[in-house]
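Why predict the complex rather than its parts? Because the way molecules touch one another can change local conformation, and only a joint prediction can capture that. The input here totals 592 residues.
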Amino acid sequence: MLDTGNVAQLSMTANQLRLDVVRMVHDAKDGHPGPALSAMDIITTLYFRELNIDPSNPQWSDRDRFILSKGHACPALYAALARKGYFSVEEFKGLRGLGCLLQGHPCMKKTPGIDMTSGSLGNGLSIGVGMALAAKYRKKTYTTYVVLGDGEIQEGIVWEAAMCAKKYKLGNLIAFIDHNGWQSGGAVEEVSGLLPILPKWEAFGWHCQTIDGHDFSQIIHAIENAKKTPEPSVIIARTIKGKGLPYMENDNSWHKRVPTDEELAVAVEVLGGNANA
Amino acid sequence: MLSYKGTREAFTKALMDLSVDDDRFMLVSPDSLKAMRATPFAEKYPDRYIEVGIAEQNAVAVAAGLASTGLVPFVATYGGFITMRACEQLRTFVAYPHLNVKFIGINSGVFGGEREGVTHQFFEDLGIVRSIPGITVVAPADEHQVYHAVKAIANIDGPVYLRAGSGREHIVYDPETPFELGKIRILKEYGNDAALFANGFIMNRALAAAALLNEQGIKVTLADVHTLKPIDTPGIATILEKCKAAVTVEDHNIIGGLADAIAKISTDHCPAPIGRIGLQDVFPGSGPAEAVLDCYGMGVRDIVAAVQTVMDRKR
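Output of the joint prediction:
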């Protein structure tokens, strides 16, 4: 099991998890590596530093909650959960297979450590609002974290959730927007004209920060800030789709694509880990 | 003491009674508090009342989040807005993870929407939810049954969709008649010439038709199929075996609801001619509640004629 740690350790952990993602998708011959790698450093920081969780008791009622609203990035989450000890890394081999623990998109009833089913875009923030409201009602101190894609916030329900979180002053809700600039069909701005993102959230009354989503210090600092504010908080994390592998970075063909044996070997070399770890 | 008048009030009364000794019950409202007659709940339990505004998808997804922590939220609003606007949230984030969310859909049927017109007449809701795995589907016949049914569904773990009306529902049950989830209730047993299977707030018409047929010498058995899913297959098959002809009566499109459910049981267990009273796969118009039912083929005379037709067919 990898250890919680400082920035250097987090960086090493993220490299291992990136390699896990590439290996998973390579072995399954299916999956979304690019979106997983852009969110990887956020997920690594959360699981290996921030989240108050107990892998031996996944249903612990006081645990922090995490929702991967951009559920197609789930290889990143599966890698984190396995390396935290929720299940064996041997499960990676079954990704997207019949009867497997690791479904094509996250399933809370099949995979230990998944707090909420996801995969149909736009819904995670509303569900996070429900979890955060439950914490207030039950006077629990847990924090609910949601990771959304930037393309995902084209969905109308995201803004329904944004209104609701503001109304109920959900300071215990922290959203990350994995702002890699791409979605399935192309560049986010070309597909929908979404930019600028931050003023929209400001207008909805959220505490807003913009950071480099691959800088662990900035991620950690932003979470600290978010926890101090009484308002719901959004952290717009500028990221690179496919981050960590030169052949994958900012190439949207890797939204859903299977690495070859050679590309896996390059990943092993670049990320400095062991693909068979 | 059953102090309510109308199915929406019956829902609120049941929820308030449930909430006295159980702090898990919540109400999630997409600006439906007044429509649901649920203001007393919000006043008594303000911390259990979540108002999300006119945002049904958010309401259902928020409820999923609440339920994931062990709370038991009721999402209560117009049935079509739950089952159509928020269908995916209901399906993927409540039914799929089998979360304990209860849905109360008002304005059910042509009768429930009446003068509002098609935007508020919901006659596809049962078919939509019935096709989603793992969700219990209930269409009680009057306010007393709604009261008891709300209590019954609160006691099971998992998602439920329950129909309510809009204030014009006829009372057909004694207040104390229990509601047994998953079991049909035989309301009249004049004889075995034909079976009438009915549910929802058209039950008064089914009762009237059964009585009229009896006067004409046609003896039918009338069963309330209030639980559409899981359906009481043995109970229905037994009646079909005796009667060998049936008419279904529902304020719903004849596609997807009771008619299809009974036809499946008939096909599987006891093939028999079946007549289908309901909306005949058309968009209705607005109008006075009783008049729209009459206009769209759901009158007492239509039921009587359908019974006569299936009896001819079984010969």
